[in-house]
Write a structure and sequence with these properties.
Layout lengths: L8 H14 L8 H9 L3 H5 L4 H34 L3 H19 L26 H32 L4 H24 L1 H11 L3 H20 L2 H16 L5
Helix pairs in contact: 1-6, 1-7, 4-6, 4-7, 5-6, 5-9, 6-7, 7-8
Length: 251
Protein backbone atom coordinates (compact mmCIF):
# COMPACT_ATOMS: atom_id res chain seq x y z
CA UNK A 1 0.00 0.00 0.00
CA UNK A 2 1.30 3.50 -0.81
CA UNK A 3 1.78 5.79 2.14
CA UNK A 4 -0.76 8.56 2.64
CA UNK A 5 0.24 11.86 4.23
CA UNK A 6 -2.47 13.70 6.08
CA UNK A 7 -1.36 17.20 7.04
CA UNK A 8 -1.85 18.12 10.69
CA UNK A 9 -3.00 21.71 11.14
CA UNK A 10 -1.31 21.84 14.55
CA UNK A 11 2.05 21.14 12.89
CA UNK A 12 1.47 23.91 10.38
CA UNK A 13 0.68 26.28 13.24
CA UNK A 14 3.81 25.11 15.11
CA UNK A 15 6.09 25.72 12.13
CA UNK A 16 4.62 29.18 11.56
CA UNK A 17 5.04 29.87 15.27
CA UNK A 18 8.72 28.99 14.94
CA UNK A 19 9.08 31.41 12.04
CA UNK A 20 7.29 34.16 13.98
CA UNK A 21 9.60 33.50 16.94
CA UNK A 22 12.63 33.88 14.67
CA UNK A 23 11.47 37.24 13.30
CA UNK A 24 10.41 38.60 16.70
CA UNK A 25 11.92 42.03 17.51
CA UNK A 26 14.14 40.70 20.29
CA UNK A 27 15.53 37.68 18.41
CA UNK A 28 16.03 38.59 14.74
CA UNK A 29 18.50 41.47 15.29
CA UNK A 30 20.73 39.21 17.42
CA UNK A 31 21.16 36.42 14.87
CA UNK A 32 24.47 37.71 13.44
CA UNK A 33 25.93 37.90 16.96
CA UNK A 34 24.87 34.34 17.75
CA UNK A 35 26.28 33.07 14.45
CA UNK A 36 29.56 34.75 15.28
CA UNK A 37 29.55 33.27 18.77
CA UNK A 38 28.90 29.64 17.82
CA UNK A 39 31.21 29.67 14.80
CA UNK A 40 34.08 31.44 16.55
CA UNK A 41 34.36 33.88 13.64
CA UNK A 42 33.86 37.62 13.70
CA UNK A 43 30.90 39.11 11.88
CA UNK A 44 33.35 40.70 9.44
CA UNK A 45 34.85 37.28 8.70
CA UNK A 46 31.38 35.80 8.23
CA UNK A 47 30.45 38.42 5.65
CA UNK A 48 33.47 37.94 3.40
CA UNK A 49 33.81 35.13 0.88
CA UNK A 50 34.71 32.03 2.84
CA UNK A 51 36.82 29.07 1.81
CA UNK A 52 35.08 25.72 1.50
CA UNK A 53 36.67 24.63 4.77
CA UNK A 54 35.53 27.66 6.77
CA UNK A 55 32.06 27.49 5.22
CA UNK A 56 31.78 23.83 6.23
CA UNK A 57 32.90 24.72 9.75
CA UNK A 58 30.18 27.37 10.10
CA UNK A 59 27.55 24.94 8.80
CA UNK A 60 28.61 22.18 11.23
CA UNK A 61 28.61 24.51 14.24
CA UNK A 62 25.24 25.95 13.20
CA UNK A 63 23.72 22.47 12.90
CA UNK A 64 25.02 21.51 16.35
CA UNK A 65 23.64 24.76 17.74
CA UNK A 66 20.26 23.93 16.18
CA UNK A 67 20.46 20.42 17.64
CA UNK A 68 21.00 21.90 21.10
CA UNK A 69 17.90 24.10 21.16
CA UNK A 70 15.82 21.47 19.34
CA UNK A 71 16.49 18.94 22.12
CA UNK A 72 15.33 21.45 24.74
CA UNK A 73 12.10 22.26 22.90
CA UNK A 74 11.33 18.58 22.20
CA UNK A 75 11.77 17.72 25.88
CA UNK A 76 9.43 20.59 26.78
CA UNK A 77 6.90 19.13 24.34
CA UNK A 78 7.14 15.71 25.98
CA UNK A 79 6.70 17.23 29.44
CA UNK A 80 3.76 19.39 28.38
CA UNK A 81 1.95 16.43 26.77
CA UNK A 82 2.61 14.29 29.83
CA UNK A 83 1.09 16.93 32.11
CA UNK A 84 -1.88 17.34 29.77
CA UNK A 85 -2.54 13.58 29.81
CA UNK A 86 -3.12 13.78 33.58
CA UNK A 87 -5.95 16.26 33.19
CA UNK A 88 -9.44 16.07 31.73
CA UNK A 89 -9.19 16.69 27.98
CA UNK A 90 -12.09 19.16 27.87
CA UNK A 91 -10.57 21.32 30.60
CA UNK A 92 -7.15 21.19 28.93
CA UNK A 93 -8.67 22.45 25.68
CA UNK A 94 -10.59 25.22 27.42
CA UNK A 95 -7.59 26.39 29.46
CA UNK A 96 -5.25 26.11 26.46
CA UNK A 97 -7.64 28.07 24.25
CA UNK A 98 -8.04 30.89 26.78
CA UNK A 99 -4.29 31.05 27.45
CA UNK A 100 -3.41 31.18 23.75
CA UNK A 101 -5.96 33.94 23.16
CA UNK A 102 -4.43 35.93 26.04
CA UNK A 103 -0.94 35.45 24.59
CA UNK A 104 -2.17 36.66 21.22
CA UNK A 105 -3.62 39.74 22.88
CA UNK A 106 -0.32 40.26 24.72
CA UNK A 107 1.59 40.26 21.42
CA UNK A 108 -0.89 42.82 20.09
CA UNK A 109 -0.05 45.05 23.07
CA UNK A 110 -3.25 44.61 25.04
CA UNK A 111 -1.32 44.10 28.29
CA UNK A 112 1.58 46.49 27.65
CA UNK A 113 0.87 48.37 30.90
CA UNK A 114 0.81 45.24 33.07
CA UNK A 115 4.22 45.43 34.74
CA UNK A 116 4.52 41.86 35.99
CA UNK A 117 4.23 40.62 32.37
CA UNK A 118 7.12 42.77 31.18
CA UNK A 119 9.51 39.79 31.42
CA UNK A 120 7.78 38.33 28.34
CA UNK A 121 9.33 41.15 26.28
CA UNK A 122 12.85 40.70 27.63
CA UNK A 123 15.61 40.58 25.04
CA UNK A 124 16.80 37.05 24.30
CA UNK A 125 20.37 37.67 25.31
CA UNK A 126 22.88 35.83 27.41
CA UNK A 127 26.51 36.14 28.31
CA UNK A 128 29.06 33.35 28.36
CA UNK A 129 32.66 34.46 28.73
CA UNK A 130 34.08 31.39 27.06
CA UNK A 131 32.20 29.17 24.64
CA UNK A 132 32.84 25.45 25.26
CA UNK A 133 35.22 24.12 22.62
CA UNK A 134 34.25 22.12 19.57
CA UNK A 135 30.98 20.98 18.06
CA UNK A 136 29.68 19.70 21.40
CA UNK A 137 30.28 23.21 22.74
CA UNK A 138 28.05 24.65 20.00
CA UNK A 139 25.31 22.17 20.94
CA UNK A 140 25.60 23.18 24.61
CA UNK A 141 25.32 26.83 23.61
CA UNK A 142 22.15 25.88 21.72
CA UNK A 143 20.75 24.44 24.94
CA UNK A 144 21.58 27.65 26.83
CA UNK A 145 20.27 29.68 23.92
CA UNK A 146 16.87 27.95 24.17
CA UNK A 147 16.64 28.95 27.82
CA UNK A 148 17.76 32.51 27.05
CA UNK A 149 15.24 32.80 24.23
CA UNK A 150 12.34 31.67 26.40
CA UNK A 151 11.45 35.05 27.99
CA UNK A 152 11.36 36.77 24.60
CA UNK A 153 9.42 34.13 22.70
CA UNK A 154 7.45 33.12 25.79
CA UNK A 155 3.95 33.92 24.50
CA UNK A 156 4.47 31.97 21.27
CA UNK A 157 6.37 29.06 22.83
CA UNK A 158 3.91 28.74 25.72
CA UNK A 159 1.04 28.67 23.23
CA UNK A 160 2.62 25.78 21.33
CA UNK A 161 3.25 23.95 24.61
CA UNK A 162 -0.41 24.33 25.49
CA UNK A 163 -1.34 22.86 22.11
CA UNK A 164 1.00 19.95 22.93
CA UNK A 165 -0.81 19.52 26.26
CA UNK A 166 -4.10 18.98 24.40
CA UNK A 167 -2.58 16.05 22.49
CA UNK A 168 -2.26 13.82 25.60
CA UNK A 169 0.53 11.94 23.84
CA UNK A 170 4.23 12.38 24.53
CA UNK A 171 5.26 11.35 21.01
CA UNK A 172 2.83 13.80 19.42
CA UNK A 173 4.01 16.55 21.77
CA UNK A 174 7.63 15.83 20.89
CA UNK A 175 6.82 15.96 17.16
CA UNK A 176 4.93 19.23 17.57
CA UNK A 177 7.81 20.94 19.35
CA UNK A 178 10.28 19.48 16.85
CA UNK A 179 8.30 21.17 14.07
CA UNK A 180 8.29 24.40 16.10
CA UNK A 181 12.08 24.13 16.47
CA UNK A 182 12.41 23.63 12.71
CA UNK A 183 10.51 26.89 12.18
CA UNK A 184 13.34 28.54 14.08
CA UNK A 185 16.08 26.36 12.64
CA UNK A 186 15.43 26.74 8.90
CA UNK A 187 15.91 30.53 8.71
CA UNK A 188 18.82 30.34 11.16
CA UNK A 189 20.54 27.75 9.00
CA UNK A 190 19.91 29.82 5.87
CA UNK A 191 21.51 32.79 7.65
CA UNK A 192 24.54 30.61 8.45
CA UNK A 193 24.94 29.78 4.75
CA UNK A 194 25.16 33.44 3.79
CA UNK A 195 25.26 36.17 6.42
CA UNK A 196 25.46 38.78 3.67
CA UNK A 197 22.15 37.56 2.27
CA UNK A 198 20.63 37.57 5.75
CA UNK A 199 21.81 41.11 6.52
CA UNK A 200 20.50 42.36 3.19
CA UNK A 201 17.12 40.69 3.77
CA UNK A 202 17.00 41.94 7.37
CA UNK A 203 17.57 45.52 6.24
CA UNK A 204 14.54 45.29 3.94
CA UNK A 205 12.44 43.33 6.42
CA UNK A 206 13.14 45.44 9.52
CA UNK A 207 10.32 47.98 8.90
CA UNK A 208 7.87 45.05 8.70
CA UNK A 209 8.79 43.40 12.02
CA UNK A 210 5.98 45.11 13.92
CA UNK A 211 3.44 44.16 11.24
CA UNK A 212 4.58 40.53 11.31
CA UNK A 213 4.28 40.51 15.12
CA UNK A 214 0.70 41.75 14.80
CA UNK A 215 -0.07 39.01 12.27
CA UNK A 216 1.41 36.46 14.67
CA UNK A 217 -0.76 37.76 17.51
CA UNK A 218 -3.91 37.56 15.38
CA UNK A 219 -3.05 33.99 14.33
CA UNK A 220 -2.62 32.98 17.98
CA UNK A 221 -6.02 34.43 18.86
CA UNK A 222 -7.64 32.52 16.00
CA UNK A 223 -5.87 29.30 17.02
CA UNK A 224 -6.93 29.86 20.64
CA UNK A 225 -10.56 30.18 19.63
CA UNK A 226 -10.32 27.05 17.45
CA UNK A 227 -8.79 25.05 20.31
CA UNK A 228 -11.32 26.32 22.86
CA UNK A 229 -14.20 25.02 20.73
CA UNK A 230 -12.24 21.92 19.59
CA UNK A 231 -12.33 23.09 15.97
CA UNK A 232 -8.57 22.69 15.42
CA UNK A 233 -8.76 18.90 15.67
CA UNK A 234 -11.90 18.91 13.49
CA UNK A 235 -10.06 20.92 10.81
CA UNK A 236 -7.10 18.52 11.01
CA UNK A 237 -9.47 15.58 10.60
CA UNK A 238 -11.13 17.29 7.62
CA UNK A 239 -7.78 17.82 5.89
CA UNK A 240 -6.78 14.26 6.69
CA UNK A 241 -9.94 12.86 5.14
CA UNK A 242 -9.60 15.16 2.12
CA UNK A 243 -6.08 13.95 1.42
CA UNK A 244 -7.07 10.36 2.10
CA UNK A 245 -9.81 10.39 -0.54
CA UNK A 246 -8.01 12.58 -3.09
CA UNK A 247 -4.65 10.79 -3.19
CA UNK A 248 -4.84 7.85 -5.58
CA UNK A 249 -4.25 4.41 -4.17
CA UNK A 250 -1.12 2.78 -5.65
CA UNK A 251 -1.56 -0.69 -4.09
Amino acid sequence: MGSIFAPNVSFIVAFLAGLFSFVSPCVLPLIPSYLSYVSGMSIDDLTVDKTAQSRLSVIKHSLMFILGFTIVFVLLGVFSSAVGSLLHSLWVMRIAGIFIILMGLFILGAFSKVKFLSFLSTDANFNLKNKPAGLIGSALVGVVFAAAWTPCIGPILASILFIAATMHNATAGAKLLFVYAMGLAVPFFIASLSLNMFLSAFKKFRPLIKTVSVIGGVILIIVGVLIFFNYLSIISLYFGNTFHYNIPYNG
